[in-house]
Design brief:
With 342 residues, the protein is α/β, with parallel strands linked by helices. It has one domain: Aldolase class I (TIM Barrel), CATH 3.20.20. It has twelve helices and 13 strands. Strand 3, helix 3 and strand 4 form a beta-alpha-beta unit. Helix 5 runs parallel beside helix 6 and helix 7 crosses helix 8. It is globular, with a radius of gyration of 18 Å. The two termini are 35 Å apart.
Length: 342
Amino acid sequence: MLFDLARPALFALDPERAHRLTVKALSISPQAGAQEPGPLAIDVAGIAFPNPLGMAAGFDKDAEVPDQLLGLGFGFVEVGSITPRPQAGNPKPRLFRLIEDRAVINRMGFNNAGAQVARTRLARRAARGGIVGINIGANKDSEDRTADYATMTRIMAPLASYLAVNISSPNTPGLRALQDEGALSGLLDAVLEARGADGPPVFLKVAPDLEPADIDAIARIALDKQLGALIVSNTTISRPALKSCHASETGGLSGEPLRDLAQQRLRDFRAATGGGIPLVGVGGIASADDAWARILAGASLVQLYSAMVYEGPGLPRRILRGLEKLMRRDGFGSIAEAVGTE
């Protein structure tokens, strides 16, 4: 109800300013630590998730409010993307609401305060528990991006429930080229070596704009390297039919128009991996039905972000209530039983 009252004022602001105000408001709200496992609990990559719904990377870039986000009901939160050195990101404006399409276009460019700022914050909250993944990236002007990912792994591994290697943002020139088979294998070798034998699981975040051969190659590498999970998928550079006046803006498109593409890409990776690696479904999820469809298609976990812009902070708990009803309606005793039964 409060969000419904505040939404017109928030939408009257520049989207990036509204986002900063939202993070500020969360920063002074109650914190939550580890949640007790409930009926939606699921184990993935050796981690016991209290429920399968997570906040995707991009919302809390600098690890300012992970505990407050957990307090909204999320089973896990992914902070970042974080780069070794601070960077301002791309010129403004760089964030656009496509209200008629219930979508967002961003070309933020990994704007963040850098690894040391995030590391200090994460170290302070580590004793509170809760599952916090850390999404790592490379600096735009880096001469050796693979080295950046290895550096970020060494810094963040001791503080991460899992590490998410983000090579799929469309807003850093050349970054998606790291999804090519040779480059990806070398990058993951460097990350896994930097993590060490006792480090957290490594998740890989991929783009939805992949050709079948790319999907097969990434699947082979992910299985060979024994990654913890694949996150499917990041924003898209494609443009389905859109109504908004911002439709021609460059950057990554997320929200409702991404839903069908992200769902199909999840199915593709489920087929390519033969169910041999957990999948995290993200892109266009805005309801319990959306989340359930992604689970049935093969996702062990799901994430959202853009839907919060339109639905507000009550959305996570609404989705969780709906998921529990859908799981019981379809005769499953757990989320794990339902994964991939589409």
